[in-house]
Amino acid sequence: MGWWQSARQLFYPKGGWSRALSYIGHRMSRLKDSPHKVSRGIAAGVFVCFTPFFGFHFFLAAVIAFIIRGNVLSAILATFFGNPLTFPFISWGSLRLGTFLLGRDFSDAEFKSSRNSFNEVMYEIYENIKSIFTSKVSSWQETLDFINILWSNIFEFINIFLLPYLVGGLIPGFMFAILFYFASVPIISVYQNRRKGRLRQKWVTIRERAVKAKAVIDYEDKEP
After folding, report:
1. Domains of the chain: which residue ranges?
2. Distance between CA atoms of 201 and 196, rounded to whole angstroms?
3. HSE-CB for 158 with a 13 A CA cutoff
């Protein structure tokens, strides 16, 4: 699979988003925990989608679900609420709200500078790691310069991007978590009740067939 197919499936999964969402809903409906516990997990997963800790959403969702006694698997599945289609809106809204709450101006130039600082940090880390496996040996001055650049850029990234995103994401994250909790409880209850009804009907059908089969065998045994 080439990079184009991989990128395409990232934004448009095989079978479409409706099929992907249907699969996630199907998996959640088959969880054996109570609807309230499953919904608490969903709320945890949705909430972490509004945090800037990309790459750790699965872990954070599982931890929060464990703390609030929610279903961990439903929390992990619910993190798919944050996807390439929703993240642009989540990020933009969280940053705008965060900068407003912190009494700052929303400046595209500052965020571009923060992004460049982050990229520079990643590049410096890469170069220093690469030097470990090559013949190049960094001097003490180069090491100190690297540390100074690293901390300076990290602080700028946290101050301009990470902090506003975190502050601005808490309020909508909490609101969406509450919304999804109350919306998912009745839906999961209906799914679970229907599934229990189908299993119960299947069990009744099996018992009826077993009784009929036993009756036929008993009748044949009684024949001379």
Report:
1. 3-222
2. 8
3. 6
